[in-house]
């Protein structure tokens, strides 16, 4: 498994995890607003302090994004390429969004795949405060009212990252899921299994969830050789303690790959936002 040496000291705890009940929410977003405002408004109204969102089949214009890029110097192991601004409406095929807070204001972290006006399929990190939703779209969200995700400086990676905080709902009984952050150089599949086992989840569903990997290796033998990729979970489950993760993976050219991750072969690059729901 490929790993990257981060610029700062590695934290002793490699996964931050908070048990909590994930409350489902289905709603339709209001068009004409930025993606940030249209998504965060109903989540705040629901009282969520952390959430994951799945969105598909949406039209957005203007549309702004970045994709994974080479390091900008010794301060980071990877950076962003862009921003890019396609001319005309963009059709978003699928997106995962993490909802949290930055300086006391609602904020989003969004990875997606889409079709640009030239017909090309691309993907990356949507800039939600610079992108406008054109038409109504239905979303699915799973939110917590006992765990709060906050942006905070991360000394290991030298990025400001979403990080879960709070005691959650320890001892509150059955039906609890987990909001977690997986740190660099942990195999993602094994990390999901570790979180599930630590919280008594022999069976669980990965809701939303997104982050970055050091390239990617799939069970069918396909590989993405880039040292940084942005990813989103299309489908993820834990059954009898074993995790299966089907991901969309965006490389450093914005090209989209997809498949089931090979266990033990996919290290987290910078961070991974993970939401586990029982069952």
Largest sheet geometry: 8 strands, antiparallel
**Proportion of beta-strand residues:** over 45%
For the termini, the CA-CA separation is 30 Å
Integer count of domains: 2
Helix percent band = under 10%
The CATH superfamily of the largest domain is Hypothetical protein, similar to alpha- acetolactate decarboxylase, domain 2
Low-confidence stretches: none
Average pLDDT over all residues: 96
Q: How many DSSP helices? A: 2
Taken in chain order, the helices and strands follow as EEHEEEEEEEEEEHEEEEEEEE
Number of strands: 20
Mass-distribution shape:
globular
**Can you identify the CATH class of the largest domain?**
Alpha Beta
CATH topology term of the largest domain: 60s Ribosomal Protein L30, Chain: A
Name the structural class. mainly beta
Rg, Cα atoms, Å: 17 Å
Second rung of CATH, namely the architecture of the largest domain: 2-Layer Sandwich
């Amino acid at each position: 498994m490929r790993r990257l040496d981060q610029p700062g000291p590695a934290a002793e705890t490699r996964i931050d995890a908070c048990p909590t009940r994930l409350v489902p929410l289905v709603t339709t977003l209001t068009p004409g607003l930025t993606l940030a405002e249209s998504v965060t408004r109903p989540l705040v109204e629901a009282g969520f302090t952390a959430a994951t969102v799945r969105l598909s089949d949406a039209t957005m214009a203007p549309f702004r994004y970045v994709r994974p890029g080479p390091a900008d110097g010794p301060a980071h192991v990877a950076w962003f390429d862009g921003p890019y601004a396609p001319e005309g409406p963009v059709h978003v095929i699928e997106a995962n969004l993490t909802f949290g807070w930055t300086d006391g204001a609602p904020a989003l972290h969004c990875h997606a795949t889409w079709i640009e006006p030239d017909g090309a399929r691309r993907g990356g990190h949507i800039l939600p405060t610079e992108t406008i939703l054109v038409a109504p779209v239905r979303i699915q969200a799973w939110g917590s009212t006992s765990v709060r995700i906050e942006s905070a400086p991360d000394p290991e990676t030298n990025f400001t990252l979403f990080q879960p905080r709070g005691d959650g709902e320890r001892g509150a009984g059955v039906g609890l899921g987990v909001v977690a952050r997986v740190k660099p150089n942990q195999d993602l599949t094994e990390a999901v299994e570790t979180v599930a086992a630590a919280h008594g989840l022999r069976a669980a569903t990965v809701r939303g969830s997104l982050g970055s990997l050091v390239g990617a290796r799939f069970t069918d033998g396909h590989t993405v050789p880039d040292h940084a990729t942005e990813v989103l979970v299309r489908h993820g489950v834990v059954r009898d303690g074993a995790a299966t993760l089907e991901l969309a993976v965006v490389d450093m050219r914005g090209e989209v790959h997809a498949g089931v991750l090979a266990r033990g072969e996919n290290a987290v690059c910078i961070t991974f936002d993970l939401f586990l729901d029982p069952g």
